[in-house]
Specification:
Chain A is 22% helix and 28% strand. Chain A has nine helices and 19 strands. Chain B binds a DNA duplex (21 and 21 nucleotides) through helix 3.
DNA sequence: CTGTGGGCAACGTGCCGACAA
DNA sequence: TTGTCGGCACGTTGCCCACAG
């Protein structure tokens, strides 16, 4: 359903927001119990400001590495300049920390990726001033209104609405030899207004009312770095801790921003997911696991890895934290970008005995084949979490 | 002198920075003693985020409304997107708060406005794609290299360097009937790259080595508002207080950003200026004063006002603070934009007895004449501060 | 099926002096 | 003195198809 969330007078379309955020991003439902990690919040700020939390940050002895909270409200937003999506969450720390031990029912967090949508990474031709946008055939047929093919050439005007409720007009035409779908008039205005470059991606959605929506996902995330001319990174890191600490001590609400495409990991996790990961699974060094990542085509893919160590990421400031408490190694050599430390709830342990240590030769041969087409599905059927 | 301040590998030209910051902005010298006001810092963040400091912000009982600090370092910066100038200051709270009572020698803070410079607000023609930039005659003759007027038409290529050390090339030509100075080729590239609009201002400087520098001052400051998708404004306000409080208690350095064109008032003041204002002058309700403001032509102008009240701006959270402790009224009816609360060190009290209450009729007649050309100079000669 | 490039027309950009405020 | 305009040339934009990967 195309649910929308009120933000002042504006509503950001939830489907569109999630499409821009990507398939791995899911927000806990309003009213549910969540776990908030100041460490993860700091990591997000560190990425934005390009500065790690410094040493000389004060201790907040009463601030635990995770806070059980009620998610009082979530509002969806998009940066006016870059269209980057982010979510504002209002959290209320739970008064009774004993509740933590209570095992909560598993909340079904539906992944809100829309069905009638497509996403295309822009080519040099798409972004050049020389021409328009080449629509992949399947995409056009699935998402755009059907053309009247009796016309010569078949063409129509499309209107698509972006995250800021701004309408963009495009001429959609089916022509060329061989025939193809193109966006011509209006496309270059859109490209230059959004400052899109080859490598960035656009996505189109047809919602349940037939309204077209469009969003963008920039490739070069480094460009999005904030000026940081407002507050020093030190003060930001301190602000995160002080705000959380104060909220925890007074059981009062506090507000955070979650930037799904900037943040290395989610730092507001459904309580049930956290507890299941922490209390239900025994993780040991040497254990094999899978973990989901987003591919360049904005689909999900699982990578295999092995737990190589268990221990605190920051033993001094954050002892006994589950945040990134696992050191891991990845099977594939292209693991340069992947985190060397992950949290329990991010991984899917392979508990099925005969899969714990697959023969390396098999893995290597599969890697040599290139894309692991069948592998994931095989494991999928074999592995069923309780 | 064209002093520069090192920032990593980059140096921002100090003269250019000050020209962009405006005539009223002066930074205390490195190593000097200053007074830092968390309240003022919060105000700057409030402007940036368009959100005031909320009620439910924790108390920092040990944090006083002003901190005596040593200014350990100042670095000049400019926003990469907007070219907005800002300064990073590293402050170290003074260990012994008793030092405060010690009267310091008056530090001469030279106003670093360059002499060989001009600033022009862009017209519709200047920013249109239809043409170039019309240089005011005086400006061209003062700042640009002299043209060879024997050529027909006289023309030359100018190279001007911006705050990011990027060079911009312009064709400077003297033509038209009547003759005038113009920038043609290269101008529109500059306009679109900096996204300048009519109402924004550009400024050119010739430094002592003959090098041309150029900067911009945007009119629409609302546009510069930061996305704030990084940290909630609450956390920012808390971060300011927590950082200052921690630094004060541990006598350790902390870092702040000062945005001269965003901040309503300076919140890092030379200690001598503060003490002189607080201890040397007796301010009373009804007292007349003058205060400097920047005009649209980026020159200084003094406005007259009367003290209408003295008291805490925020009696609950910041009792006994001198920050904006004066309520004031302004003589001129165009006072809509001017603060209704100012701090002691911002004003110049008129202590000369016969000027305390000038006949209103005289004032009115002067106002009716329009611009107060001579008034300020008359007062200048009459009033000499100790 | 779709990315790139050549061809070509239409439009916008940008340089010029003529006015007039 | 300088802001805006009409005139005009030239360069870019943008629509078309032909190829080829």
């Amino acid at each position: 359903a195309s649910s929308t969330i009120v933000q002042g007078e504006k509503r950001i379309n939830s489907e569109l927001w999630h499409a821009c955020a990507g398939p791995l991003v899911s927000l806990p439902p309003v009213g549910s119990q969540v776990v908030y990690f100041p460490q993860g919040h700091s990591e997000q700020v560190a990425v934005s400001t390009q500065k790690e939390a410094d040493i000389h940050i004060p201790n907040y002895p009463n601030l635990r590495p995770h806070l059980i909270c009620t998610l009082e409200n979530v509002t969806l937003h998009a940066d006016l300049e870059t269209d980057d999506v982010y979510a504002q969450m209002v959290l209320i720390p739970t008064q009774d920390p004993e509740k933590e031990t209570m095992l909560l029912p598993d909340v079904v967090v539906q992944n809100k990726q829309p069905t009638e949508y497509f996403c295309k990474t822009l080519t040099a031709s798409d972004t050049s001033t020389h021409g328009g946008f080449s629509i992949p055939r399947r995409a056009a047929e699935k998402v755009f209104p059907t053309l009247d093919y009796t016309q010569q050439p078949p063409a129509q005007e499309l209107v698509a609405r972006d995250l800021h409720d701004q309408d963009w007009h495009f001429r959609h035409i089916y022509r060329g030899q061989p025939r193809r779908h193109l966006l011509t008039t209006g496309w270059s205005i859109f490209i230059s207004a959004k400052r899109l470059q080859a490598g960035d991606a656009v996505l189109f959605i047809r919602d349940d009312k037939g309204q077209l929506l469009l969003g963008i996902r920039r490739a070069n995330r480094l460009q999005t770095i904030m000026p940081s001319s407002v507050l020093s990174s030190d003060s930001m890191h301190i602000g995160i801790l002080a705000a959380a600490s104060h909220a925890a001590q007074t059981s009062s609400r506090f507000t955070i921003f979650y930037n799904p495409r900037q943040s290395p990991s989610e730092f507001v996790i459904p309580s049930a997911k956290y507890q299941k990961a922490v209390y239900s699974t025994q993780i040991t060094v040497g254990m094999r696991f899978r973990m989901m990542f987003e591919t360049e085509e904005s689909t999900v893919r699982r990578y295999m890895g092995t737990v190589t160590g268990i221990g605190d990421l920051d033993p001094v400031r954050w002892p006994n934290s589950h945040w990134r408490s696992l050191k891991v190694g990845w099977d594939e050599s292209t693991a340069g970008e992947r985190q060397r430390r992950v949290s329990l709830w991010e991984i899917e342990p392979l508990t099925t005995p005969f899969l714990i240590c697959p023969p390396p030769i098999v893995l290597r041969s599969k890697r040599a084949r290139g894309i692991h087409a069948g592998e994931d599905e095989d494991l999928e059927t074999l592995m069923k979490k309780s």
